[in-house]
Amino acid sequence: MSANETPASHRPPTAPYDSAFLRACRREPVPHTPVWFMRQAGRSLPEYRKVREGIGMLESCTRPELVTEITLQPVRRHGVDAAIYYSDIVVPLKAIGVDLDIKPGVGPVVERPFRTREDLARLRDLTPEDVSYVTEAIGLLTSELGGTPLIGFAGAPFTLASYLVEGGPSRTYENAKAMMYGDPGLWADLLDRLAAITGAFLKVQIEAGASAVQLFDSWAGALSPADYRRSVLPASAKVFEAVAGYGVPRLHFGVGTGELLGLMGEAGADVVGVDWRVPLDEAARRVGPGKALQGNLDPTVLFAPREAVEAKTREVLKSAAGLEGHVFNLGHGVMPSTDPDALTRLVDHVHTQTAR
After folding, report:
1. Which of 162, 178, 221, 331 could form a disulfide with 296 if both were Cys (CB 3.0 to 4.6 A apart)?
2. What one-character DSSP code corresponds to residue 16?
3. Alpha-carbon distance 128 to 146, whole Å?
4. Residue 39 bears catalytic tag
5. Which is more confident, 13 or 164?
């Protein structure tokens, strides 16, 4: 090597594959612990609120140039190590004709909840043409992001099924669980259909240029391990298997899933997301070897003074010290009233503390 050459380990990433984020997902050495935040693009940013003025959530997801701008906003502001595609978990359902909307202050609401076998006919296959705006937006994004990887995402079959059966958000999931326990055949067919739709949606994102994908099973924490293994894991595994051949890291996240971490890894994830309830060293024991972990600062910590945020961050990093691979994230999404500057400072603190 000549005196004018830079050692490869100190060069900035020239492609997403060389990024700290993807290296951590592959459990390879990293220059620093990579950081990104769930819901990093969204209501905590004033620039987001400005560009979304007068535009409904689902409509905003179908405008490629707007999606591109919103996805890039936290990368510019915070210097995170990965972007996550701006969308919503119900987008593929809307794209195939399910009558639903996202109501402000409520969330996704389904006009006619799914309760019978006849309702399965309302879930046709998803084609790339149904979400051509996704392909266009990711093309725009990858040309702008350069060496920063883009994470695609989708909702997991159980969480999508819960919305469809309940008709909207729920705290108890009584209708979904009633179907799961009372008509296991219908439940299995519903999740199988949703797994095919979700797998197709992730394929579109990967083929357009996404460097990794995350499956959000936001409500899986409502299940016991036995129910998850019997009634949910097969469908999630089908999603992960659908994209296994692309060779991109597959991430899996749920809330309140401390008792399910091993099973979520077993479903096929390369990286298992951990919320703030379980320390990362304990999570690693539950997940077992061969998986990277993602997490897991409590999002509410960001409302505390800077010194407290840094102290809690160091606790997370200490717990992650022995992991095969670690992606720093919050234990859930960024809360809407979070000070954006607190996120920027957090990224810098993690990078500084973990610089190799």
Report:
1. 331
2. G
3. 24
4. yes
5. 164
